[in-house]
Backbone:
């Protein structure tokens, strides 16, 4: 099973960016632990600060991966184009947000992605990505 994690803008700064909101672990460190925990899965990771690059990557992996875990960062709240890209691909997509967007500013309460994703995991920190992997893994082993 091949799962792809895609992170959007500013998430390259995880561990350094507002640690009180996003924690102090870098995504690279977290991703290494995740790979060790699920050795039977092929896990890939892509991050970009650019909307078009995120769309290109969804197109690239969306027809070959078994699942995608997407944290589109602020594009979640603005991008119809990203939502269209999620709709355009057959791979199931799970939306993840590290922080509880519903407990934050009003502009973070709406997601263009939620309606086109299989489900959303919000506010559980980096653990949200692992729970999404676990959900895909559960589908694999039945
Ligand atoms: C985020 C929440 C977004 O509102 C914000 O713009 C981010 C990170 C999260 O993971 O909590 O960049 O997606």
Residues:
């Amino acid at each position: 099973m091949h799962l792809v994690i895609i992170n959007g803008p500013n998430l390259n700064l995880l561990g350094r960016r507002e640690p009180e909101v996003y924690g102090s672990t870098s995504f690279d460190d977290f991703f290494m632990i995740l790979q060790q925990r699920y050795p039977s899965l092929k896990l890939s990771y892509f991050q970009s600060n650019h909307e078009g690059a995120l769309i290109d990557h969804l197109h690239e992996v969306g027809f070959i991966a078994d699942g995608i875990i997407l944290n589109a960062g602020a594009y979640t709240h603005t991008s119809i184009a990203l939502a269209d890209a999620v709709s355009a691909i057959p791979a199931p997509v799970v939306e993840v947000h590290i922080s509880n967007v519903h407990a934050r500013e009003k502009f973070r309460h709406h997601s263009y992605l939620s309606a086109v994703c299989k489900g959303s995991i919000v506010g559980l920190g980096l653990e949200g990505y692992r729970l999404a992997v676990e959900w895909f893994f559960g589908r694999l082993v039945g």
Q: What stands out?
A: The first strand starts at residue 2 and ends at 7. The longest helix spans residues 127-141. The chain has a mean pLDDT of 96. The chain is about 35% helix and 20% strand.
